[in-house]
Specification:
Blueprint (H helix, E strand, L loop, with lengths): L1 E10 L8 E8 L2 E7 L11 E6 L4 E2 L3 E3 L22 E6 L14 H12 L3 H7 L7 H9 L6 E4 L1 E2 H9 L1 H4 L6 H17 L4 E2 L21 H11 L1
Parallel strand pairs: 1-4, 1-5, 6-7, 7-8, 9-10
Antiparallel strand pairs: 1-2, 2-3
């Protein structure tokens, strides 16, 4: 007996193949049978605990949205709308060099203003909504990991947060990084990757600015800084 059957839907399987009509059977959370059907073919045999009639609808794998900014919203919104409303089942955050980890106590509002300036997410929503409770990137992942989300979420470690954490005001103002600064940032990036970060993100886009008009930290980072952080990611 199947846990679920989805019958009569138009399957778009994500491989690039032509769409086709089929019944899909699921058992223990996995697709166990795909039964192709012509106009006069019988339905898939076998009972199921639940059956969904998908006639006239698309049946497809979940979409992976590789560029989102749910970094703060994930701390209060289990559903992660609107992405989940559109068939997205995996989101990736930490893009554009902006994020909320690591964060030193007292830097929270500055990171919010950076995100607000770059992504036009209302700072009031972030200030009122983010629960915080972390300092390191690993602790941030632990906080996310304790939540029951409607979709899967992965995130990158962001250059802006790394620079602010390692260099303070100098990092926020895009001052050149010293060898000691670079070493400290590389350690943060490596620790984040080992903790489960999907990668490292930065920004060279001059339009990406904090609310005070300052470009995202890392916008003008020199090659020695970028290469060191790339090696740390590797």
């Amino acid at each position: 007996m199947f846990d679920l059957k989805i019958t009569g839907g138009t399957v778009v399987d994500g491989t690039g193949a032509d769409r086709f009509t089929a019944d899909v059977a699921i058992k223990d959370g996995k697709i166990v049978e795909v039964h192709r059907r012509g106009p006069n073919d019988p339905a898939m045999a076998g009972d199921a605990a639940e059956t969904i009639d998908a006639t006239g609808k698309i049946v497809a794998p979940g979409f992976v949205d590789i560029h989102t900014h749910y970094d703060g919203q994930v701390s209060w919104d289990d559903v992660l709308e609107p992405s989940s409303n559109h068939g997205v089942t995996t989101v990736v955050a930490g893009n554009c060099g902006v994020g909320f980890a690591p964060v030193r106590p007292g830097q929270e509002e500055w990171l919010i203003k950076l995100m607000e300036g770059v992504e036009d997410i209302p700072g009031t929503a972030l200030t009122e909504g983010i629960t915080w409770g972390w300092e390191t990137f690993g602790e941030y992942l632990d906080v996310i990991g304790r939540r029951e989300l409607s979709v899967d979420m992965g995130t990158q470690i962001a250059h802006g947060a790394v620079r602010a954490y390692a260099m303070g005001e100098r990092g926020a103002r895009n001052e050149p990084a010293t060898p000691d600064d670079i070493k400290a940032m590389a350690e943060l990036v490596q620790e984040a990757i080992e903790a489960g970060a999907l990668g490292f993100s930065s920004s060279r886009t001059l339009a990406h600015r904090a609310m005070d008009g300052e470009p995202v930290p890392g916008t003008f980072a020199a090659e020695d800084e970028l290469f060191a952080l790339g090696r740390a990611t590797a």
